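Tutorial, part two.
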Amino acid sequence: LTMPFPNVMSSFAEGSSEEAYCASPLSACTIPYDTGDGLYFDICMLGFSYKNPFPFQFEGELCSNFTQMDLLLEKKAENAAIAAQYWPPKKWMFDLSTAVGIACVFLVGVSTISSTIPSMIITTLKFRSGEIASLRDPYFKKYRQDLLKTSFLLGAAIWGSIISSGIVFCVAYLIAFLLSFEVTRSYILSFVSLLIGITVTLIVKIIVSKFLTKYSFVGFYRKRPLVANIASLCFECWHLALTSSYIILRVVKLFFIIIVYVGRFDTPMLARGVGEIGAVKLDAFPFIFKQDLLAIDAHRHPYIERLGMMYMMKLKHGDKFAKKTGSIWRLLFVYALFPWLRQYRILNNENDELQDGDNLELFELDGDGDGVETPLCKNPIATDVEVNMSLFRVEIAALNNKIKRLKEVNKNLKHRR
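Running the prediction step on this input gives:
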């Protein structure tokens, strides 16, 4: 095919003149070929051009003399009349789309604002409780570097919310407008009906899959290998054809998740190690958020506050504060009234080791069960097994002593009788 470019060429009907004519732009023509008698013949498409792609572009009085052109012109007039009813869009369509967009922005904004402070508190408590590894995590050392990056958070909070709200508004506005506009509503409803059909098919597939799994498997093992193999083969063939659609759907879902969470710098969208190229992080704001929380909590942690209070009390009272007798009375008080707190005195973690200088005083019992204090080991570093065994010995000895005292009381009561 050949197409006139860059100028538009027109074709005129036979007998056309400046006063009366029928003209139409040439769209594309086949390559002319010789008919053998010195004439060249080709076929051309009429009615539209690359500058104006709308069809039925026939102009002139003589066009009505051609039956096919006359029918096309009548069809064009009918289409123009129908388009005039629906175009331009009505004002209520824009108002409705704007209202839907504002409502979606409000919901996303409220969700972001109401989640930020709880997320800060929860993340801090996770660091304190050890659910998020801290001091013993090699990755934790990175949080202590370049603390000036925390100055990004204020701008990220403001501009992230603005950009997220703008994208959510545009997407919600476009969807609402396409649903309310008569010209596009039929296409959207057709697409929705297609989604409903796919959803019904997937529900049937899930039901069949659940039934076959329950019928053919027990945990990870096949109780009916033949049925399980046939079902696996059928589902693999089905998924081989449909996985492309699942991948496209995954892209769409990730796109919407990014739109909603682009203003949530407190929640990582990428797992640790994903998007990290050396020292460069593609999404560094969640890392900076945790870094800022740790920098704040380093000054407000209960351990730091309690330790600072102890230092101040020591400076104020001197040798009268934190003496050995006070420590012994505190241990007796805890052992008598809060015995369950003993489990927090020494961490039972196979990765925990007592450092040099830690004051670990563990005592064994002598042969008759009396509480004679003998150091468990001269080295202040003790294994968890030794710690647990010593604690068990102490508890067993205490119970034996209690039983012995009860027997003596019981014996005295018998003599009195």
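Confidence is low (pLDDT under 50) at residues 347-385. In part three we will examine how such features are distributed along the chain.
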